[in-house]
Amino acid sequence: MKRRAFVGSTLATISIPGLSESGVWQRVRQDPGDIEAVTGDGRKVTLRGMAVRELAQGLEGRLLHARSEGYETARHILNPAIDKRPALIAQPGDVDAVRRAVQFAREYGLLLAVKCGGHSFSGQSTCDGGLMIDLQRIRSVRVDPTARRAVVAGGNLLGAVDAATTPHGLVTPLGTVSHTGVGGLTTGGGFGRLARRYGLSVDNLVGVEVVTADGRLLRADANENADLFWGVRGGGGNFGIVTAFTFALHPMQRDVISGGLVYPYSKARDAWELYGEYTVRAPDDLFLGIVQTLPPGGGEGNVLLEVCYSGPERDASRAMAPLAKLGRPVADARKTMPYVTAQKADDNTDPRALSMYLKSGFTRNIDSRMAAEISRALEGRPDRLTMVFAAQCGGAIGRVAESATAFANRDAEQTILAAVGWSPKAPAAPHLAYAREYWKVVEPFTNGFYVNDLSGEERSAIEANYRGNFARLSRLKTKYDPTNLFRLNANILPG
Q1: pLDDT digits (tens, 9 = 90+) for 351-406
Q2: Helices (H), 43-120
Q3: Is 415 within 8 Å of 367 (Cβ atoms)?
Q4: Is the dihedral of CA 162, 165, 168, 171 positive or negative?
Q5: In 267-405, where does DSSP find H-type helix?
């Protein structure tokens, strides 16, 4: 596709009341002429200046092209291994502007990516040659402490939600890194430190507003557009852009006990065995993660058990007592802290400062054989970060019926992930090859995967991953997105 963008290098807030059409053009420093773009099915198209000009005028925000100031920053996501260049980046300033951007993409059949926090390891929130809709300007959180509800705009990061709800002594379960986008996290399911206690993020949704592929804004809840509401809760971005989430809130004390226990690398197998045995019977108030790491530089690796205990303080020692079976840790960083502090604990250690590749899968039983094989097979290299880690499922997550929401993997006890990281300046091929070989050791122990952790290689497994929910999801896709405009996700083809 060719696209002509009249877009200038700084089309910030171009749609200003009272600004004349000629005034709009005065704000454009350079007209790049026609812009080549691509459709969702890979064809080329040219967008003429007038069409792009009309889009920019209606955005109440910015429209960027490759020579615009701010384009280079806007096009990047957190994983530097992903280096894509959208033809246009729309940063709409309100929901009506999101609708206009979607209608524009649909009219020209453009390849469409939607970016919130940019946490997609495999680059689903960006694209080459298409239109990226960047929701960074669609941010607000409104809390009703009496009704115990929070209305969260679709471009928010989860830290903003925690910051707004916790002063009222209320929480809703979200992820584990505060700069994660609420939209991508929630529509895929939404694991976090409180999920065993209160369920997934999707289990706490009471309503959404969705811009669908035809540009309509639909309200969806248990009574209105209930089929869409069901599909959004675990179906990823297949059905549209969620511009507002209404979450149920739960009373919770301000402080939790959180932090990590560090053990020598020689304890890896024992740690995995203990993790597998205890996570299936731990109280719902306890979140446990495990990380086995071999750092770059050839240094000694370690094993970390991450805890977050949100229950009554009097029961904390009993809940964590089984961890003592591993003996004295090298370091014990557990302490009482505000929940919002615990939610930011992984922000600076998020490994995506490196180029990263990740694979994930759900497990039901980490037994002694699995512990031995996955711990032994992990191999380090001086030029690579190598890690295998897991987070706890179960608890309240597993007490929801598989068919209640689109998220089907309710019987999972853990989600396990393998990742490698390398310098963005280094060749990726040897690291990718190793990661794929290591995953061959892990994969036989898994069943299904978390759609938010796509590697981009799971296309043939998506139907099986949604289990008995897939046929219904396919019908919904046909109803709400018959041309598959929203395809950069765990994509469900129209039936």
Answers
A1: 667 999 999 999 999 999 999 999 999 999 999 999 999 999 999 999 999 999 99
A2: 49-57, 71-75, 95-108
A3: no
A4: negative
A5: 268-279, 316-320, 339-343, 368-377
pLDDT reading at 229 higher than 70: yes
Among candidates 128, 188, 78, which has minimal Cα distance to 462? 188
In whole angstroms, what is the distance from residue 360 CA to residue 388 CA? 10
User: Which single residue is written with the structure tokens 């690398």?
Assistant: 265
User: 131: alpha, beta or left, given left = phi > 0 and alpha = psi -120 to 50?
Assistant: beta
Amino acid at 326: L
Residues 70, 64: contact at Cβ < 8 Å? yes
pLDDT (tens digit per residue) in 175-199: 999 999 999 999 999 999 999 999 9
**pLDDT score recorded for residue 29:** 33
- Contact predicate 132/113, CB 8 Å: yes
Nearest to 153 by CA among 126, 128, 133, 135: 135
Among 314, 383, 356, smallest CA distance to 456 is for 356
Render pLDDT for 431-455 as a digit per residue (tens, 0 to 9): 999 999 999 999 999 999 999 998 8
- Non-local CB neighbours of 428 within 8 Å, separated by 6+ positions: 81, 355, 357, 422
Confidence tier at 297 by pLDDT (50, 70, 90): confident
**Residue where the block lists tokens 């929130």:** 125
The two beta strands, 88-91 and 131-134, are parallel
Among residues 8, 95, 26, the alpha carbon closest in space to that of 60 is found at 95
